[in-house]
Design brief:
alpha/beta, 6-stranded mixed β-sheet, 6 helices, about 40% helix
Length: about 180
């Protein structure tokens, strides 16, 4: 899968950015299960800059969406945040935008490397903004990304932001 899949996704992200319209497919399940929503691209005009995010603001936005769906709120988890930050930094450093790194690793691999044991895991990717509200709005406008955010299985989240790439990892710890 490695390079060929990543190459296709960069092409797809370029087309999506060019058209400012993204057509998203469903999710693919792997044993834990892990939801792969297609990466999403938006352009809010913010470009790339030194970026930080407001963890409290992001949690408020995500949990507001979860409340509307009548599911329990999520909390930030340091291990998931470490994994999400690594994924975002790796995408920028290695020039890809995909659920698969050029070496074939996924968020599930990176999360496991932090020592977090997940019974359920999902990853949402977004390119093109550094604004928390724009990111959550874009994900909620996509059925597969929104399904991950409001999934009743999700209990904890981690967020990474590098340049204009957001990585959101949602998970439930193993018993």
């Amino acid at each position: 899968m490695g390079r060929g899949f990543g190459c296709r996704c960069r092409w797809w992200a370029w087309i999506a950015g060019l058209m400012a319209l993204v057509s998203l497919a469903g999710c693919v399940a792997i044993p834990i299960p892990f939801d792969f929503s297609d990466p999403l691209t938006v352009d809010d005009g913010s470009g790339t800059r030194d970026v930080t995010y407001d963890e409290a603001e992001f949690a408020l936005l995500v949990n507001d969406e979860r409340g509307q769906a009548q599911v329990q709120p999520v909390t930030f988890n340091a291990q998931l945040t470490e994994a999400a930050e690594f994924r975002a930094q790796d995408m920028v450093a290695n020039n890809y935008f995909s659920h698969y790194a050029p070496d074939g690793t996924t968020a599930a691999d990176v999360v496991a490397a932090t020592g977090y044991e997940a019974s359920w895991l999902a990853e949402n990717l977004l390119m093109g903004t550094t604004d928390e509200s724009t990111a959550v709005d874009a994900w909620m406008s996509s059925p597969s990304h929104a399904a991950n955010i409001v999934a009743p299985e999700a209990q904890e989240i981690g967020l990474g932001l590098e340049a204009d790439i957001y990585v959101l990892i949602l998970a439930a710890p193993a018993d």
